[in-house]
Give the backbone structure.
Amino acid sequence: MITQSLIGLLRGQPIVSDPVRGPEQAALMNKLNGAVYLDRAPQGQGNPFIVVRQMSGDHARAINGGRMGQEQGTAQLDVYAASPAEAAQLASDVGAFLDCFQGHAGPGGNQWVQGIFQLDTDNNLLPPVHADEWGNPDVSLVFQVFQNE
């Protein structure tokens, strides 16, 4: 599941050893302190935090071979922080870390991610849908993920 790979990377599972991405991951882990959630954050979650949602997903298929063992999908990451400036900076840091990532991801590093590519960024200036999110400025990032099953 692509969301597990994204959440794992942002929580430091596994730690990335790349000389560029490793320090980026460490800085994000320090800022987020594990506050990366699937579909929704716990009520009353303090800032900053990220909510990861899968928007679409399917397996690559060949006409004569069926499923090819590759999962692909699109995920939205909603980045919440105490101020619009902090949300924008954290979203920028997340984008820099994840965009064009290739390597092991997910709990235990059991997924091989062939590529993560940032497709879109949106500053959400409208009031949020859920009452417990009120006052938490956020920025949404959209990523396309390709990984082996």
In short: The mean pLDDT is 85.
